[in-house]
C-alpha cells in the first residue's frame, strides 16, 4: 500500500519579478523584466508574451516592448527569501531548501497540530501572502518528485494535491519535459524516438531506457516515470559544493567582460564560504557555448582556502584555458562551483606575511557588505556593469 501524500513542494512564483511588483505598486499588473543584458526573472504578464528566464534582453524587449525593465536587487530578494524560509521552518522543522525560492517540507507529523497536509499547505500559502506579500505555488504528494511536478502544474499561485490513488492518472499524460532532469537535449532525443509523454517512457523496459538515454540518466528517468522516488526530505545535509552561474544571452562577449562577470561570481561565493565558516579545495568552471554544448574544467588545490584572491586566480586560469573554444564558438553561460567543502578549522595556519594582509582585507570587505549591502563595494572594473546574478545553481527560474 502506498503511503500518504505528506510532502510539500513550495515554490515562489516569478520570484525576483514578484518582489519588484510587491515593492513598487506601479509595477503590479504590468509586464516586468528583471535584468537588462539577460532576463533573470519575468513577471507572468511578461511570460504571457513569450519572455523567459535566461533569454537575451534584446529578444525579450522585442517580444514585449512595453515591459518595464528593472535592475536586479539581490539584497531585497535575499531578505524576501529569508522571510519566507522563516515561515517554512515555523510550519515544520523538516525543511529541505532547494534554492532561494523553493523548498520541500515534510508535514506528515502535523495532523493533530495543524490538520491534513492540504490544510497545512493552505495555511502556508496564506501566511506567505500575508507576511511576505508574495504568491507561492504548492504541490502536495507522496514523493518529492511528484510534489515538485504538482507545484509546477499548479502555477501561478496555485495548490495541487496528488493523492496516492491518483498518481498515475496525474503523471502519465504529462509531457516528458515535466520529468525532473529532462532538459532540451534529452527531450529532443525522446521526441525523435516518438516518446512525448511520461506514460510512453514508462511503457519501456528499464534496459531499453538505459540503452537510449545512457545508463544513469535512463535508469533515473525511467524510475521517475514509474513513480519510484524513495528520497526523503533531508534537513541536516551539508552541501558538498556551492555555486552560482550567469546566463549571458547570445551576443558576443569580450575577455574583459567575461573577467568582470567571473570576478563578480567569485566575490560572492568567497563571501558565502567565509559567512558559513567553510573552505574549499576544488574550483569548477562551467561553460555553455554559443552552440549550447556544455563544458566543465576544474582544478584542485593542495590546501583548502576561503581567500578571494586565490579562488579568483584559479578561476581565471581555467577561463584562460578555455579562451580558444570561447572565441571559436561563443559563450551563453558561465558558472563557478566550489567543491570539496570543509569547515574553516581545516584551514592551515598562515604565516604573518602578505597572506594575512589579504585575509584581513577579505574580512573588512565582508563586514562592509554585511552592513550596507552587497552593492556597497565593487571592484573598479565592475562599475556601471549589469550586476545581475543568478542565485545558487539553479537560479530563480519561474
Characterization of the model:
By secondary structure, the protein is an alpha+beta fold. It folds into three domains: 1-165, Alpha-Beta Plaits, CATH 3.30.70.270; 172-225, DNA polymerase, domain 1; 241-382, 2-Layer Sandwich (Dna Ligase, domain 1), CATH 3.30.1490.100. Helices cover 42% and strands 19% of the residues. It is built from 16 helices and 13 strands. A five-stranded mixed β-sheet has the order 5-6-1-7-8. β7 (136-141), α7 (144-154) and β8 form a beta-alpha-beta unit. α4 (74-91) runs antiparallel to α6.
Summarize this structure as a short list of keywords or feature phrases.
398 residues; alpha+beta; Alpha-Beta Plaits; DNA polymerase, domain 1; 3 domains; 42% helix; DNApol_IV; metal-binding
Helix content: 40-55%
> What is the number of helical segments per DSSP (H or I, 4+ residues)?
16
Rg over CA atoms, rounded to whole Å, is: 22 Å
Biggest beta sheet summary: 5 strands, mixed
CATH H-level homologous superfamily name of the largest domain: Reverse transcriptase/Diguanylate cyclase domain
Would you give the CATH topology of the largest domain? Alpha-Beta Plaits
- In quaternary terms, these chains amount to single chain
In short:
The protein is α+β, with helices and mostly antiparallel strands and 398 residues long. The chain has 16 helices and 13 strands. It has helices spanning 15-23, 44-47, 57-63, 74-91, 111-114, 117-132, 144-154, 167-171, 184-192, 198-202, 206-213, 215-225, 255-275, 308-321, 323-329, 354-372, and strands at residues 7-12, 32-34, 41-42, 68-70, 95-99, 102-106, 136-141, 159-161, 241-247, 278-289, 294-305, 331-339, 342-343.
Amino acid at each position: 500500500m502506498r503511503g500518504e501524500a505528506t510532502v510539500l513542494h513550495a515554490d515562489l512564483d516569478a520570484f525576483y519579478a514578484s518582489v519588484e511588483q510587491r515593492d513598487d505598486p506601479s509595477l503590479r499588473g504590468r509586464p516586468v523584466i528583471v535584468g537588462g543584458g539577460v532576463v533573470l526573472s519575468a513577471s507572468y504578464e511578461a511570460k504571457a508574451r513569450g519572455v523567459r528566464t535566461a533569454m537575451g534582453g534584446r529578444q525579450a524587449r522585442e517580444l514585449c516592448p512595453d515591459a518595464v525593465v528593472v535592475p536586479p536587487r539581490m539584497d531585497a530578494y535575499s531578505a524576501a527569501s529569508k522571510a519566507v524560509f522563516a515561515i517554512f521552518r515555523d510550519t515544520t522543522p523538516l525543511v529541505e531548501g532547494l534554492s532561494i525560492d523553493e523548498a520541500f517540507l515534510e508535514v506528515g507529523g502535523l495532523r493533530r497540530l495543524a490538520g491534513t497536509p492540504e490544510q497545512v499547505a493552505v495555511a502556508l500559502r496564506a501566511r506567505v501572502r500575508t507576511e511576505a506579500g508574495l504568491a507561492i505555488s504548492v504541490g502536495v504528494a507522496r514523493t518529492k518528485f511528484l510534489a515538485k511536478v504538482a507545484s509546477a502544474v499548479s502555477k501561478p499561485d496555485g495548490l495541487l494535491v496528488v493523492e496516492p490513488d491518483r498518481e498515475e492518472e496525474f503523471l502519465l499524460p504529462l509531457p516528458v519535459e515535466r520529468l525532473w532532469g529532462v532538459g532540451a537535449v534529452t527531450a529532443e532525443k525522446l521526441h525523435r524516438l516518438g516518446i512525448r509523454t511520461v506514460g510512453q517512457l514508462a511503457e519501456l523496459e528499464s534496459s531499453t531506457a538505459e540503452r537510449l538515454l545512457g545508463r544513469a540518466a535512463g535508469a533515473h528517468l525511467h524510475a521517475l516515470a514509474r513513480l519510484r522516488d524513495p528520497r526523503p526530505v533531508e534537513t541536516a545535509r551539508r552541501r558538498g559544493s556551492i555555486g552560482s552561474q550567469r546566463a549571458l544571452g547570445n551576443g558576443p562577449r569580450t575577455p574583459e567582460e567575461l573577467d568582470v562577470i567571473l570576478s563578480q561570481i567569485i566575490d560572492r561565493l568567497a563571501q558565502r564560504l567565509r559567512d558559513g565558516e567553510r573552505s574549499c579545495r576544488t574550483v569548477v568552471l562551467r561553460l555553455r557555448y554559443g552552440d549550447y554544448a556544455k563544458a566543465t574544467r576544474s582544478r584542485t588545490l593542495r590546501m583548502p582556502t576561503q581567500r578571494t584572491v586565490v579562488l579568483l586566480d584559479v578561476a581565471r586560469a581555467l577561463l584562460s584555458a578555455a579562451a580558444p573554444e570561447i572565441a571559436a564558438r561563443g559563450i551563453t553561460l558561465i558558472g563557478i562551483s566550489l567543491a570539496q567543502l570543509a569547515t574553516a578549522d581545516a584551514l592551515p595556519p598562515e604565516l604573518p606575511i602578505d597572506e594575512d594582509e589579504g585575509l584581513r582585507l577579505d574580512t573588512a570587505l565582508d563586514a562592509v557588505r554585511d552592513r550596507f549591502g552587497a552593492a556597497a563595494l565593487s571592484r573598479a572594473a565592475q562599475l556601471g556593469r549589469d550586476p545581475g546574478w543568478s542565485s545558487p545553481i539553479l537560479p530563480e527560474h519561474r
